[in-house]
Write a structure and sequence with these properties.
Blueprint (H helix, E strand, L loop, with lengths): L2 H56 L7 H22 L7 H4 L5 E5 L3 E10 L1 E4 L2 E4 L8 E6 L3 E8 L5 E6 L4 E7 L5 E7 L6 E4 L2 E4 L2 E2 L5 E5 L2 E5 L7 E5 L3 E8 L2 E5 L19 E5 L2 E4 L2 H10 L17 H20 L6 E2 L2 H4 L5 E3 L6 E3 L8 H4 L15 H27 L14 H8 L3 E12 L2 E10 L12 E5 L5 H4 L3 E2 L5 H6 L4 E5 L6 E8 L6 E9 L5 E2 L1 H5 L8 H6 L25 H16 L13
Parallel strand pairs: 26-30
Antiparallel strand pairs: 1-2, 1-23, 2-5, 2-6, 3-4, 6-7, 6-20, 7-8, 8-9, 10-11, 11-12, 13-16, 14-15, 16-17, 17-18, 18-19, 21-22, 23-24, 25-27, 28-29
Amino acid sequence: MKLQQLAVIFVIIVLPISLVLAMYTDNNIDVLKKQAEYNDMLLTATNDAVKAYQMNTLRNGYSTVNDSKIRDISASVNSFFNSLASGMGSSGYKKEDLEPYIPALLYTLYDGYYLYGDYQNVVTIKNGKQNYSTQNSTELTSKSGVKPFIYYTCEYTGSGKFDIIINYTLDNYITVMGTDADGNIVNKSGYLINPDTVNINGTNLTAHGVAIEPETLGEYIVAIDTVPKSDGTTGTEYVSREPEYFQYVYYNNQKYYIDTKYVDNTSRKSSTYVGVNIFRLNNNLRVYLTETEANGLAQFLGLGNYTQINTDNFKDNSAYNYYKNAKEFSEFFINLFSGQNNIKVITDTYNNQLNYTALNTETGEEVPIHTRAEYNISDVFDIKANDNDPEAEDSLFNEHRMDVIISSIESNLLSIISNFNIHNNSGFEFSLPVLSEEDWYKITNNVTVVSFMQGLPIGNYKYYSNYSIVANTLNKEFVSRDSIILRERETGVRNSDKNGIYHNPRCLTLNNENSSNLVGYNIIDYQQQLTSYDVVDPSSHSTVQTLSYYYYPHSGSGAYECIIGKDEVLFTTDNLILGTGFHSINDAYEDEGTSEYEGRKPSENIRKAYITALAREKYNLYKVSDYFNNYS
């Protein structure tokens, strides 16, 4: 073939194909870059939403109240959109432009969840009255907002008149409502445990083989006081001090502090002091107890009256109460379900769960959203079985609890995204993506924010479609198994305590040290706190100034081995609670070198400090349904 012919072939055939392939490759690279950029922006916006929620709740004494939750979540939603709009500003998108591409935001909380998305405004005003339409019409006005709170609920029936609804949570706390087999009304809440793991002999209690004893607790606080004016005139002025260490106990889900510092110093004495050296904080103000209140606290501590309270007997007994009440509730639960061998679930979302499918964007196939293990429902409620302690992470009860939560979330996400399609004219078909089992585990065991973004064109006739999950590990409404960290007990001498090192209780180094003077606290108590107060002029009722002070309830720094580096976190939380040994095959640790620890058990001193702290913090969580109970 002549050179001229080869040149013609190259110019007419090879060169155009090469140019097309180069353009196609460049376009695909641009698409991948754009997708990676959007992934980063979505993750950053979701992180900012979590941080906004954390900031509002950690410094809000009413963050567990429903009205406050809605306000905090609405603020978090705004933070998400502002962050996303800021990140995509270079792409020409603004907040108003992004809303059509966000079909849903999910906020999982301790006992239920909120969904942000489109809903139909079905209320119209006619002649001054509200008219409600139940029609599913595209003519109804579409609104975006936070939908009503949804509980993690499942209903069960059995023999006789047995019809029970159980509200689940992110741990082993449940609420039972309905009728028993004889038709008696049932309303009770509590922590579900295997009662055989708890032994009570008077005031002595052991749980999972360790003694649960009263604790000496304390923390640094900055309290604002009202004191008589220094110039002798009528009225009060507001003063605060440097962070100071006070012992405290939990009473009625609130901390009460014993004061041995200022009650005898007239010039620094709070106006609320009436002779009892015990106080609580009310909106950051120090409020001393009356004799009547202090006597009630004394009886709670097992003392005759408040004059008998001192720093030696001012000890917290929350962990004891947790296991005592949990044992009582669990025995009630066993009796309720006794004789029920053919329990059936009648909740549609749970029964239809296996039919929920989503599009796998990688394969283009419709696949189940969540694969549920098969088990006998009746076995779920046999909490005395060896493999079904509800406090254990790998229990059958816990597996069913997660399935109930997943089925509810799936159903409502499918509904809200389907509704989003009705009012979106982009031509893109919004759908619930397939979440990995690891993602579902994170959602069902943590307070989380899950964001969905779909439908943005990214080139080559392709559209962006992804989701992001960020766990909110710093919140006041849920204490997870991983929330507890341990350290040597503080002395109350600030310059000494600030050098203390705190550890993850699963840390190999801490277990090797085997200290007997350990105490556990919630990890949020190691976060910076804010004390603030508006000083109001009593004559004009206007704010004169706002006092703000930052401090840390517990000083010290995280251990490099387990808090920072996480290199020596060997045991599981089940190892700590149940006292079982490390097993590299069953646990998520298969790195070389772990075989030498095969079968090793965590330190008993660490187990005691961890179990006590976890029980104490869980017992003192605010729970909406706890009013059902009347524990002795």
